[in-house]
Known about the structure:
Elements: H1 2-14, H2 18-21, E1 28-29, H3 32-40, E2 44-48, E3 57-59, E4 63-64, H4 75-82, E5 89-94, H5 98-108, E6 114-118, E7 138-140
Parallel strand pairs: 1-6, 2-4, 2-5, 5-6
Antiparallel strand pairs: 3-7
Amino acid sequence: MKTKLSFLLGISVLGLGAQAIAAPPAPRAIEPKEVLGLLVNDFAVVVDVREAEERTETIDKARWMPNSKIEDGNAEWKTFLSKLPKDKTIVFHCVAGARAEHAASMAAAQGFKTAYFEAVFPADPPAADSASRGRFLLRSAK
């Protein structure tokens, strides 16, 4: 009992409460309609994580950081993160969502509020719900 109490007191003295060791919140998947609302109200920054050869269409004002450079030790990734605002949601996107989710998790681990979404391109087969997906956010990069 004495050892347990000493341990707890040590944690308290060091300021290591539950909040200090809690994992960062997981990024959430959001619909493109929500992304549009965040952008219109200046509550978010969009980051495109597709590789250069995939970027035939882009989202207006989206920043770009290719997935191939998103690693903890990569200097370009660290510099990129240092330029992102901490007071806005950082919304990552790619074609299918997996790379965007990975990038959002990496940024969340650095203290950013993040989300991700799947972008739908006009080359994709038409879907009944295409208006609720990413199609209307995209503009030709050419």
